[in-house]
Design brief:
Elements lengths: L3 H12 L3 H10 L4 H19 L6 E8 L5 E9 L2 H4 L2 H17 L11 H14 L6 H19 L5 E2 L2 E5 H12 L4 E9 L2
Antiparallel strand pairs: 1-2, 2-5, 3-4
């Protein structure tokens, strides 16, 4: 059986949490590594939510050019300090986000960025597709589901991550916020394609 020190090391590598947090999580979970990992993830995600209102005054502009030079992306990802902006984890996140934009071609960063007229038009189209005679609460659910799918395809934060379709880009960013301890915001992106 692994010693407490080995378990703390393993938990740290898996979660990016501090030594003391790992020790406390393992003690609370009676040495169960999986329960401790879940507890730290939940704690990290709640910490990330608290950081969401903090100002992001630094960051980086990441570029990605797909092999063949016919597709390129430029994305601005902001964080709180230049220290975090220079870390490998932040640079890696920016690179992954640029590749996501190249692969999935989103139109907007988040659903809040979708213009009201586009939302109204999509809702109208989906409403016309619903068979007549359905109860209103069912119609609302159908429209809600179809709009959710629309956002999932067209909004970067709601897209499935290209390397792990069990995770959204929002979850990827939140995990990085929890790991780095600073708020991270995707400000804007541009996707260029020849042809």
């Amino acid at each position: 059986m692994a010693t407490l020190t080995e378990m703390i090391k393993e938990l740290r590598e898996a979660t990016g949490a501090g030594v003391l947090d790992c020790k406390k999580a393992l003690e609370a979970a009676d040495g169960d590594l999986q329960k401790a990992t879940e507890a730290l993830r939940k704690k990290g995600l709640s910490k990330a939510a608290k950081k969401a209102s903090r100002t992001t005054a630094d960051g980086r502009v990441e570029t990605y050019v797909h092999p063949g030079d016919k597709l390129g992306v430029m994305i601005e990802v902001d964080c709180e300090t230049d220290f975090v902006a220079r870390t490998d984890d932040f640079k890696s996140l920016c690179h992954e986000l640029a590749m996501q934009v190249a692969a999935s071609s989103p139109q907007w960063v988040s659903r809040e960025d979708v213009p009201a007229d586009v939302v109204a038009k999509e809702s109208e189209v989906y409403m016309a597709q619903v068979p007549a005679g359905k109860p209103e609460h069912i119609v609302e659910r159908i429209i809600e589901g179809k709009m959710g799918k629309f956002y999932g395809e067209n909004c970067l934060m709601e897209q499935a991550y290209i390397r792990d379709d069990e995770k959204t880009i929002s979850q990827l960013v939140t995990e990085t916020i929890a790991k780095l301890g600073e708020n991270i915001v995707i400000k804007r992106f541009a996707r260029f394609q020849i042809g």
